UniProtKB/TrEMBL annotation:
It catalyses: a 2'-deoxycytidine in DNA + S-adenosyl-L-methionine = an N(4)-methyl-2'-deoxycytidine in DNA + S-adenosyl-L-homocysteine + H(+). Belongs to the N(4)/N(6)-methyltransferase family. N(4) subfamily. The lineage of its organism: Eukaryota, Sar, Alveolata, Dinophyceae, Suessiales. This is site-specific DNA-methyltransferase (cytosine-N(4)-specific). It comes from the Eukaryota. Keywords: Methyltransferase, Restriction system, S-adenosyl-L-methionine, Signal, Transferase. One of its GO terms (molecular function) is DNA binding. It comes from Cladocopium goreaui. Transmembrane segments: none annotated. GO terms for biological process: DNA restriction-modification system; methylation. Gene3D superfamilies: Vaccinia Virus protein VP39 (3.40.50.150). InterPro entries: MeTrfase_CN4_CS, SAM-dependent_MTases_sf. The keyword Nucleus does not apply. It is an enzyme of class 2 (transferase).
């Protein structure tokens, strides 16, 4: 009985996929040849101004470090005609055929209404009104977009001729250019570091135990770190360990970019959520990580995060000023970069993934006078040879992020939660504690999410139990908060323990 139900589910899903594929091909034909304006100089100039940008490095970035994109588009409470939430997941047809910035609202007492909402800048939305047809809403949106000098529009307004839409224009541009990897030139990297060194990292402390950032998911230094790890865009998150089928991988940013639906959805949110009319490479990279284009566009994609370098720097400044630190799972380099920004003398770390290790080595060459000692191995096997002031890391969460298939990856070597806890987590923590000088601090960025619990993983609980057994004394937990959030419970915890002195 159950088998028959599963079978039906699969047939339905396959049907859905076939339908979206059909529309996808149809759409690809259309966006492959965007129509150019014939005689409207204004529209042509705008299109040209976008198309002449030929290298990702030369596309201006409208996002700035201290401005976050709007999380969700909501109807302003005082202006709307009903209180329903704006749709965040477009259906395939809507995504292609509905004009930008137009959201359908179901009105329980009448026909659907169309709201025009304009993202004038990251996080700044303007409600333009409630309309009976999507076209009316789009025209209102277009008029507003012209005032902001956005280049190519949904519809010609005020007697203009039709031109390519901004969405088509950006789609064609990125299809011909390929994935917008971060720049890799030595000059760009040096400039990024120079800018970062000017930041006042102490400003990240909001109170004694709270650290705050404008955006926890994109923070200063991330772009520099990603520049050394192009393979990070091929990393998938998993949907949790399915007991029979094993973990199901979500599409990576690269896979999302490669599919027409994924790229289209990512470009739409660059424009509509982030208010970035150029769809800069930086914004698009982020949006491709957010989305899951599979099936019916539900759920998130593979948001692979780097530990914020400025937060790491502030922590090092407080707990290991000018000292020696050990990072058992170096990852994307946020803590390595943070060590340089925070004035650490020596950074020792393990990273078993060969590609990530190579990226970290390259990054470390930029960070003189910081002394860097990197080891390409699993930290469960590594004994630190000198005493350290701080042992600070963010370990992998078993198999929730699929960094590589190499055997040295903790989840590949220890494929069950129990084996992973005993074979990786416990020895890694024990070796971190051994490396600490008396009075030194163990600092861990870990959380347990509902999805982890469902697959039998309670990282927070396990870490607390193991560290307690190792005899360390817990200190107040640090919280990493987004600016404007007052509720400490919404922050991400960073746990701190102290090794007894002497
Ligand atoms: C990327 S970090 C976790 C993400 C985190 N936000 C960060 O960058 O700080 C986890 C890292 O642990 C590494 N890793 C996997 N198995 C490991 C092991 N046995 N020992 C040490 N590191 C390991 C992975 O290759 C990955 O780079």
């Amino acid at each position: 009985m159950a088998k028959r139900g599963t079978c039906r589910c699969w047939v339905a899903l396959l049907l859905l996929q076939a339908i979206s594929l059909h529309f996808g091909l149809d759409f690809a034909k259309r966006v492959g040849m965007p129509r150019r304006p014939k005689s409207n100089p204004r529209a042509r100039d705008r299109a040209a101004s976008l198309l002449q940008v030929d290298s990702p490095e030369s596309i201006p970035t409208t996002r700035s470090w201290n401005r976050a994109p709007a999380k969700s588009l909501r109807l302003p409470a005082d202006k709307g005609c009903c209180s329903f939430r704006v749709k965040r997941h477009w259906r395939w047809r809507q995504m292609i055929e509905e004009p930008l910035g137009v959201y359908e609202f179901c009105n329980s007492t009448g026909p659907p209404r169309f709201h025009a909402i304009f993202a004038s800048a990251p996080g700044e939305e303007e409600f333009l009104g409630c309309f009976r047809t999507p076209r009316d809403a789009a025209v209102a949106w277009d008029r507003r977009a012209r005032r902001a000098e956005w280049p190519v529009l949904n519809f010609p307004v005020d007697g203009e001729e039709e031109g390519p839409t901004l969405l088509q224009d950006r789609f064609t541009f990125y299809r011909s250019k390929g994935f917008p990897y971060p720049p890799t030139s030595a000059a760009w990297r040096r400039n990024q570091l120079q800018d970062l060194l000017k930041l006042n990292v102490t400003g990240v402390w909001r109170s004694q135990w709270m650290l705050q950032l404008d955006d926890l998911q994109r923070s200063p230094g991330d772009e520099l770190c990603w520049s050394f790890h192009p393979h990070s865009f091929a990393v998938s998150k998993t949907k949790g360990a399915n007991k029979e089928m094993g973990p199901v991988k979500k599409p990576s940013a690269l896979e999302t970019f490669s599919s027409n639906a994924g790229l289209m959805k990512s470009l739409r949110t660059c424009l509509e959520r982030c208010g970035d009319p150029a769809c800069s490479p930086e914004t698009l990279r982020g949006e491709c990580k957010f989305h899951d284009d599979s099936m019916i566009f539900q759920g998130g994609g593979s948001w692979i995060a780097n530990f914020p370098a400025t937060v790491a720097a502030a922590i090092y400044q407080r707990f290991a000023p000018g000292g020696v630190v050990y990072d058992a799972c170096a990852g994307w380099g946020g803590r390595l970069l943070g060590a340089r920004l925070g004035g650490v003398r020596k950074y020792i770390a393990c990273e078993p993934s060969s590609k990530t290790f190579a990226g970290l080595e390259e990054l470390s060459n930029l960070l003189s006078p910081l002394e860097v000692e990197l080891h390409r191995c699993g930290s469960e096997d590594f004994d630190v040879e000198e005493e350290v002031d701080v042992a600070f890391t963010s370990p992998p969460y078993f198999n929730t992020e699929w960094y590589s298939d190499e055997r040295t990856q903790s989840h590949v070597r220890f494929p069950t939660v129990e084996a992973w806890r005993n074979g990786f987590l416990q020895p890694m923590l024990a070796k971190m504690v051994t490396a600490l000088r008396p009075g030194g601090h163990l600092i861990l960025s870990v959380t347990t999410r509902r999805a982890h619990r469902r697959s039998g993983l309670d990282l927070e609980g396990d870490v607390h139990q193991i560290v307690e057994e190792l005899g360390l004394v817990q200190e107040p937990t640090l919280t990493m908060l987004k600016t404007g959030t007052d509720n400490g419970r919404k922050g991400r915890p960073i746990f701190v323990w102290k090794k007894a002195a002497g």
